[in-house]
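User: Hi! I have a protein structure encoded as tokens and I'd like to know what sequence might fold into it. I'm fairly new to this, so please keep things simple.
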């Protein structure tokens, strides 16, 4: 049974009766009186009848920095230090100028020769507009002297012009130790200690993605609110796969932050956007921890009062990010002016019940969001000041 069949079977009202006829424009003809309605959830695209205030935000109120984009790609688990390009700097700049985006951080800047290429064509070619991060050489994990080699690669990337390190969710969820145990490598594996220390010595903040939304670690059944997203993407299902739980991954990252207090860690995707009390506990304990909001306004925006308090309390430790990419996977956001306008509307206004994505839902879940309406001082910190401090701009 393919995914679409599963989706229809598990979500449609499949009682006996004639199916509705689809009309032009994507609408469906209602069933005749006496017939039992049928509608696969994949075809359920309701339009809200609420009459609410709409604020058009075409440009951010203040210049901002996007901490979390993917212009290049290449490290992953594949061997080699080459780099791939998702788009061109020129195409980025058109959107950046339109929405008041001053600086864009390319997190997935690879390592070695690929990292040098990314810096040459981005940060050095367009000073002030692009910043490049480096990545661990995951494919070299099983090689002798990996720990020192990885630390040396951080120094090399710094020499290339890189300003930080990006750690993908690969660490903890996909990278395996093929030499000793064959198990998934833990986030707090001591072989990475020299890497964290090198980042501290070089004042390179670590943008670290650990785990995924908590729904991905729960049973894939009718009670899972992200069922449709998980049905469409096999790589979102971690329950009962031999991997650590969502909380185990987070606690392993906490142990890294405790062990390396001089290293600054930006926990991507608000760390655990569904549990702001837990994130607050972490921020209170780990003074070297920050968060970005990339690809999580869907979660923050459905708890706007709690989220507003979170922004106000931790206003010095939250940075703006989108996870913008070009033709990206399920969790990434398609780069566009509309994407940034939605993020700015969420942060700048108190608008109610609007779409959290420029693309079709459910990108993450079947809900709309509410704006948090940050004050100007807080907004300026989230848009620019906090990231500028971390990056020594």
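Assistant: Happy to help. Inverse folding works backwards from shape to sequence: for each of the 393 positions I chose a residue that suits the local structure. Here it is:
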């Amino acid at each position: 049974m393919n995914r679409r069949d599963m989706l229809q079977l598990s979500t449609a009202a499949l009682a006996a009766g004639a199916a509705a006829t689809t009309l032009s424009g994507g609408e469906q003809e209602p069933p005749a009186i006496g017939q039992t309605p049928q509608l696969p959830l994949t075809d359920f695209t309701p339009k809200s009848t609420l009459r609410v205030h709409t604020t058009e935000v075409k440009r951010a109120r203040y210049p901002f920095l996007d901490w979390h984009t993917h212009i290049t790609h290449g490290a992953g688990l594949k061997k080699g230090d080459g780099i791939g390009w998702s788009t061109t700097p020129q195409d980025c700049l058109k959107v950046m100028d339109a929405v008041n985006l001053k600086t864009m951080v390319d997190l997935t800047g690879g390592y070695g020769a690929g990292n040098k290429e990314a810096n040459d064509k981005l940060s050095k070619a367009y000073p002030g507009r692009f910043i490049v991060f480096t990545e661990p050489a995951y494919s070299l994990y099983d090689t002798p002297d990996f720990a020192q080699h990885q630390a040396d690669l951080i120094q090399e990337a710094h020499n290339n012009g890189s300003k930080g390190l990006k750690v993908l969710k690969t660490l903890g969820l996909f990278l395996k130790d093929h030499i000793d145990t064959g198990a998934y490598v833990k986030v707090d594996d001591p072989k990475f200690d020299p890497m964290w220390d090198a980042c501290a010595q070089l004042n390179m903040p670590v943008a670290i993605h650990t785990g995924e939304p908590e729904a991905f670690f729960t049973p894939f059944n009718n009670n899972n609110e992200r069922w449709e997203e998980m049905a469409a993407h096999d790589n979102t299902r971690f329950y009962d796969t031999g991997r650590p739980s969502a909380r185990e991954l987070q606690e392993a990252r906490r142990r890294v932050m405790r062990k390396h207090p001089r290293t600054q860690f930006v926990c991507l995707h608000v760390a655990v956007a569904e549990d702001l009390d837990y994130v607050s506990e972490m921020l209170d304990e780990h003074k070297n921890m920050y968060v970005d909001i990339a690809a999580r306004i869907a979660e923050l925006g459905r708890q706007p009062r709690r989220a507003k308090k979170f922004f106000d309390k931790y206003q010095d430790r939250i940075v703006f990010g989108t996870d913008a990419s070009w033709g990206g996977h399920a969790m990434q956001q398609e780069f566009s002016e509309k994407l940034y306008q939605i993020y700015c509307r969420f942060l700048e206004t108190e608008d109610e019940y609007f779409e959290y994505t420029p693309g079709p839902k459910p990108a993450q879940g079947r809900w709309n969001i509410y704006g948090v309406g940050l004050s100007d001082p807080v907004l300026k910190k989230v848009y620019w000041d906090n990231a500028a401090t971390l990056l020594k701009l």
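A useful reference point when you look it over: The first strand starts at residue 21 and ends at 22. Feel free to ask if any position seems puzzling.
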